[in-house]
Please model this.
Amino acid sequence: MHVTFLGTSGAIPTTERNTSAVFLRRAGERFLFDCGEGTQRQMMRYGTGFDVSHVFLTHLHGDHVLGLPGLCQTWDFNERELPLAIHTAPGTKSQVEALIGVIGTRPSYTVAVHEARPGSVVVRGDGYEIRAFETEHRTRSVGYALIEDDRKGRFDREKAEKLGVPVGPKFSQLHRGESVELDDGSVVHPEQVVGPSRPGRRFVYTGDTRPTDTTVEIAQDADLLIHDATFGDDNAERARPTGHSTAAEAATVADRAGARRLALTHVSTRYGGHVAPLEREAREVFDGELYTPDDGDEFDIPFPDE
Ligand SMILES: [Zn+2]
Ligand SMILES: [Zn+2]
Model:
């Protein structure tokens, strides 16, 4: 699972930071979370490719969606054939459809807009699901979590050989959870040679939000939590009325959730080139891996047991 930060600025872009967008690649599938103005140029600049199957919008503030009409038009010029699914907060479907159709023409490929009910599975894929969760902003909003299925336990090859299992198809039968009978009539059960199942990875993207219990809940043991950190302590009083979080509040959510890694994003232009105070304030609360990514930064998210 590989993440590219395409836009890390708050409401307004700067020359260094574009507005919100996160690109996620997992086993041949590519997803885009939010699509601020200029996202398509960021995709070119940072070489993500354009092969996106699902776009997940957290809410309809311009800094999260204004890149969508342009990107949809470019896909049209590129003769995209793959259908596109766009997920958006409940009650915003018609606005998203209007946004794509704003120039008066419709893309030639199929675009389906789905409203993502908080708490529901919005995509069920091969080995993972993507869930929407409730966030708290000044408008209808949701966050998204990609949660991988548990993986099979480790196969203890040495032990299997010791028990007399011949190298070959019986190994994979056992790994699949089936018991096997050996030539001498004895039976070997999977639990004798296969370890406990291992958790998959968990990626959580909040979009703009106050710190919430729903984020703490869904970000339990998250391998990467990307959280709104618009303000530092010096502007803490602005966070609540604007529906945002401070870096310390984001860190508190990550700490309560036991997240392994926290990325602070959507930073206000006042910290654009100087994020050290945000990191310092977050560090006081959260002792996992902490990042304040720049545009173009990339992360490989390892499995928890790697
Ligand atoms: Zn925003
Ligand atoms: Zn917003």
Notes: The mean pLDDT is 96. The chain has two domains: 2-151+198-300, 157-193. The domain at 2-151+198-300 is CATH 3.60.15.10 (Metallo-beta-lactamase; Chain A). The longest helix spans residues 247-257.
